[in-house]
Write a structure and sequence with these properties.
Two copies of one chain form a homodimer. Chain A contains seven helices and two strands; from the N terminus they run H-H-H-H-H-E-E-H-H. The first copy, chain A, is elongated. Chain A starts with 13 loop residues before the first helix and ends in a 9-residue tail after the last helix. Chains A and B meet through helix 1, helix 2, helix 3, helix 6 and helix 7 of A and helix 1, helix 2, helix 3, helix 6 and helix 7 of B. Chain A binds a DNA duplex (30 and 30 nucleotides) through helix 3 and helix 5.
DNA sequence: TGACATTGGTTAGGTTCCTAATAATTAGGT
DNA sequence: ACCTAATTATTAGGAACCTAACCAATGTCA
């Protein structure tokens, strides 16, 4: 959060492939263009999201974890393994994130008396306060992102992305999606 | 590249916000849903792309750098600063990436006799060979991603993403896009 | 009861990114 | 010419992720 106009990023390998597409007719130009646009949008969105979170003193990993903890208040408190599965990172990563959050007093680790292998992770009052402070601004930010899209645009976009995600799911179940298409 | 069915990832804070949207009517549910879908698709696409590159023995950073070097063959060879700007990472990161690529013999650093501060980065024959070997498979992979979309779908998707990216550009020029919207 | 695999959390070590500080070189102004 | 400012590449140190290896606690089953 220094430069503020960093993040022009944009054009890593994208344009290179686009140029390729002109010289090699066997390369499907529309596929190339669509993929690149998708990849680039995702990249820029993630980067800006990270930047927004950073401006509030947090990061992707920590924010996800806190949000997940807030959700899991009913019933037994979550264990690190639960959190790993739900946030999609490894248990080792959770350990590291919890260390940081605990040091900042946002979460607490309590060992489970029933099963002494388990750790129960609790959001502290400070953690809850922190989330309550951030969420309104975060909601405003993501609302402003999709603001230029009409209601119909949004439905269309969600529909198209759903198709892509379905495809991604198919491919990732195989060996990374490359060997499969021989 | 071990688990092959890793990458279920998916649902970090996304669902949590979706649930929020029900309880707080001031939270625009369609904006929320669209944003989350976009973020998640981007995340999954990037992750799978990384995995595909890894299966060919490379990674995002290195691949982008090599592709960029391949493009910049005409005229003076690129300097690390050029590459940093064009690939959208810092110069420090470029230094690290070049170290790795040089160790693997894919690039060469030559100092510029005119301006002795400058380093000229050259793709070696091995580097070119490496790229030539990877690109066809990479093209097949990304083609397969957008394959389920019709030509019209693709145009529509690119159009919508362009709108989003324009918005992202506007917001990132200000202070991360949050302070601006008071 | 005792071997044995399984499960949960952590640690160790590596990677890619970042920011900030550094040393070397060039450019500008007087 | 000389002092200062700007610019280049690099290093140092930190964060978030990963895989692999580890130990403790639990479950299983002869």
């Amino acid at each position: 959060m220094r430069g503020t106009l960093t993040l022009l990023k944009g054009l890593p390998r994208y344009e290179v492939f686009l140029e390729e597409a002109k010289h090699f007719p066997d390369l499907d130009a529309s596929a190339c263009y669509t993929f690149l646009q998708l990849l680039r949008t995702g990249d820029e969105l993630l980067a800006l999201d990270e930047q927004v979170l950073a401006s509030h003193g947090t990061r992707h990993g920590r924010f996800n974890l806190l949000m997940m903890l807030m959700k899991c208040t009913e019933g037994q408190a979550a264990t690190p393994a639960d959190l790993a599965e739900k946030t999609g990172v490894t248990r080792a990563t959770i350990s590291g994130l919890l260390d940081g959050l605990q040091k900042d007093g946002l979460i607490e680790r309590r060992s489970d008396p029933q099963d002494r292998r388990l750790i129960r992770v609790h959001l502290t009052a400070a953690g809850q306060t922190f989330l309550d402070k951030i969420r309104p601004a975060y909601c405003r930010w993501f609302t402003s992102i999709v603001e230029p899209l009409s209601e119909q645009d949004r439905q269309q976009l969600v529909f198209l992305l759903e198709k892509i995600r379905t495809r991604l799911g198919e491919l990732s179940r195989k060996g990374g999606g490359v060997e499969r298409i021989a």
